[in-house]
Amino acid sequence: MKPSSSAEHLRRAGFTLAELLVSVTVAGILLVGLGSALTMVTRSMRPDASAAVTLDAARAIRLLEDDLRFSSHVLSRSATSVKLLTTDADQNGNPDVVEYNWSGTSGASLTRTVNGGTAVAVCADVVDFALEFLNDGESRAVLTSSAAGGEVLLQSHTSTSNMTWHTVGYSDAYGQLIQPSSFTGTAALTGSDEWKITRVDYYAKRETYDSATYRFDLDLAGDDGLPSHEHLYQATLDPSVASSTGGWYSVAVSDCPWIDATQPVTLTLTYLDDSNRLMIVESSASGASGMLTTDESATEWLRPSHNRSLLYRVYGMKRTKAHSDESVSVRRLMFANIRLATSALVAQPLHAGAELMNRPFDTTHKALTNFSNWSLTDDSNSDGSVDWNVSATSSPSTSTVASGLWTASSQSLQLNGSIAAGSTVQTHVVCRDTSSATGGIQIRMAVPTTSSSSSVSSLLMLELQSDGSQTLTVYEEASTNVYAKAAQYRSLVSGLQDIHCVMNTSSQTLHVWVNGVWMGAHRIGLISSPSVTATVQIQAGASSCEFDACEVCTWSSSGGTSVEGSL
Predict the structure, then answer these.
(1) Which of 282, 247, 251 is CA-nearest to residue 167?
(2) Do 52 and 113 touch, CB atoms closer than 8 A?
C-alpha cells in the first residue's frame, strides 16, 4: 500500500547529505568574501591622528591640486615639499597655511599639515614624489647706475669785474640757475648720465656783526628756469659767519639726490630774521648768465637774467646709467607639475598638473602681516616663530590694532630671524604719516653680499608735510647710521601710500614703486657695518602713524626677472 500524500510530503521536506554539504560549502565561500569586503571597508575608514581619511595616491594628488589652484601665496617650496597660503577651509575668518611634505625616504608617507597642526598622511608607502613650478618668465632691461666718479667743478662764474653788491633782505632774494647743459670738460654730461651737487661756494659778506638767519635752497628748476617746490637740499645759515669785507663762503651739501642729465637746478638765498643780513655779489662780466631776483616779494621770482650772474662755484659728482637685466622678481607662478608613485605604482607613477589661478609671486615669504587676518604676533608663514619682534623706540609709545589698521608711535617692527647673504629683498608696506611732527615712517633693509663682508643697506622715510601732502625720501647708508639721500618723491596725497621696494644685493640697486607706479632704480653703495644687519625694520616715528599691511619676501639674486610696471 502506498504511503499517503501527506506522509510523502513530510518525508520529502528534509535535505539529503549531499545537499547539506553543497549548502555549507557555498555559505562558507560567501562568508569569506563578505569578511574580506568588510575588512577592506573597515581599513579604508579607519581614523588617523587628526580624524581625517587616509587617501590613496589619486585622491592625494586631487587634494594637492585643489590647494595649489586656490593658493594666494607660495610661502616656501622644494622638489619634495610646498607650503601654501590658501583659502579659508575651516571658515574661521583666516586663510589657511597648508604644507605638503615627503621626507624622500622610500616607503615614507606624503603628509599634509594645516595651520601648523598634526601632520596627516594623505598617501602611504610613497617611493617617488616631485614638484616642479613654472613661472611666466618675463624679464626686461631697466636703467641702473654705475659707481660715481670723484668730485669735480660742475659750473662757475668767478670774474670779479663789474661787481655790484646786493643785500638779501626782507623783500629781496637772489639766486642762480645751474644748467647742466653748460657743464664742460670732465663735468660734461651725456643723455645717459646723472649728476648731483656736493658743495656750493659763493662770494658774500655780512652786513653787521649781529646774529641772524637766512635760508640756502637747492630746488629743481621748471622749464622757465624758476625754482619749483621740489627741494633737493635746504639749510638755515647765519650771515655772521661771512667776513665783513667779502670772500668765498662754502656750503657742503651732504644728501642731495641724483638728478637727470637734462634737469636744471636753482640755488636761492632768502632772508629769514634779525638785523644782520647776507650781502652777495652780482657780476655782469662776459659770460654772466642765469641770475635770479625777486620783484617786490621774496617769493615772487623773475626769469633768470642772461647778462647777470652771482659769483659762485658748484661742485658735484656724475655717473653713467647703464641698461642691465635686474634680478628683481615680479615673476608669477603659473603652473605646477606633480609626480607621485607608491610601491604599487612604482613602474607607472601618476602625473598631474595644477594651474595656480591667483598667480602668486615667485618668492619666499617671511612676513604677511595685514593686521586683520594676521596680527603683530602671528607666525603667518608657519616657520615656527612669529614674524616680527615688536619694541618701543622711545617713551612714551603707543600701539593699537583696530579695524585692520595698526596705529603706532615710537614703535618698531624688526623681522624675526636673519636674511640669507646675497638675497634679494622685497618689502611691501601700506602706510601713512598722520602728523607733521618730527618722525614719520622708516623702512630699513640691510643684507650682506655673498662676495664680501660688506652689506647693502637702504632707508625709506615717509613724512607728512605742513601742506597736507606726504614726501617719500630714499637714502643709502653711507656709514653706520649716516645716510645719503638718493631720491625724493614729493606731493604724495595724505592717504595710505602703497610703498613697494625691492633691494638687489648683487647689483646694489633699490627699485621703488609708489601706488603701483615704478619710480626708478637707485644704486646703493656697500657698507661694512650697517645699523640694521641682515633684516628688515619698519618703524613708526614719534608722530602717529598708520599701517595697513607689512609684507616681506626674499629670493635668490641669481634668477632673471622683470621689474618695470606695477606690483
Answers:
(1) 282
(2) no
Q: pTM above 0.70? A: no
Identify the CA nearest to 232 among candidates 275, 265, 270, 280. 265
Partner residues linked to 195 by β-bridges: 259, 318
| Residue linked to cell 599634509 | 112
Cα(55)–Cα(67) distance, integer angstroms: 15
The pLDDT, as a whole number, for residue 54 is 41
Residues composing the chain:
567
DSSP 492-548: E-SS-EEEEEEEETTTTEEEEEETTEEEEEEE--EESS-SS-SEEEEEE-SS-EEEE
By three-state DSSP, how is residue 311 classified? coil
Q: How many other C-beta atoms are found inside a 10 Å radius of the C-beta of residue 224? A: 9
Q: For the chain, which residues make up each domain, given as ranges?
A: 5-42, 57-138+330-355, 144-324, 364-556
- Give residue 223's Cα distance to chain centre: 34
CATH architecture, domain defined by 144-324 = Sandwich (2.60)
The CATH fold assigned to 364-556 is Jelly Rolls (2.60.120)
- The one-letter code for the residue type at 79 is A
Residue 29 sits at φ, ψ, to 5 deg, of -60, -45
Contacts of 80 (CB under 8 A, 6+ apart): 101, 102, 103, 104, 129, 130, 131
Phi-psi category of 137—alpha, beta or left, where left has phi over 0 and alpha has psi -120 to 50? left
Domain 144-324 and domain 364-556, same fold? Reply is yes
H or E, element range at 144: strand 141-145
User: Which of 493, 509, 489 has the alpha carbon at shortest distance from 501?
Assistant: 509
What tens digit of pLDDT does each residue of 346-367 get?
A: 778 899 999 999 888 777 888 9
Report DSSP letters for 22-75, one per residue.
HHHHHHHHHHHHHHHHHHHHHHHT---TTSPPPP-HHHHHHHHHHHHHT-SEEE
Asked if 549 contacts 369 with a C-beta cutoff of 8 angstroms, the reply is yes
The grid coordinates of residue 89 equal: 577651509
Mean pLDDT (the chain, rounded) = 84
What ranges make up the beta strands (E) of 222-284? 227-237, 247-252, 259-260, 265-273, 278-283
